[in-house]
Amino acid sequence: MAELPHKYEVPVKVVAKAIKLSDETKEELKASGMMDDKGKLKLKGVSPKMLKRMKEEAVDCPVLKNELPFIQCFVCSNFQSRVSGKVLCKGDPL
After folding, report:
1. Of 30, 41, 48, 71, which has the most beta carbons under 10 Å away?
2. Is there a domain that residue 94 lies in?
3. Rounded-to-integer distance, Cα 66 and Cα 59, Å
């Protein structure tokens, strides 16, 4: 199996306190059907246990040049895959 084309390998880190999602990110999630009106995430193929763990993780985004919650990275168009604690990122401008 060939490796996915990516520009960055970004390590995923565990944070002490979950980083809040920005309001514009929440609006995007609601528009795409990944969040209900009450603000509860509904990601297909992700168990509630894994979702809880994802909320406590963050990445240093090489595209936006700041720390983001992993969920925001997960739904980004640049997200390729997560392998062994690293995110494969396309690196395209947003």
Report:
1. 71
2. no
3. 8
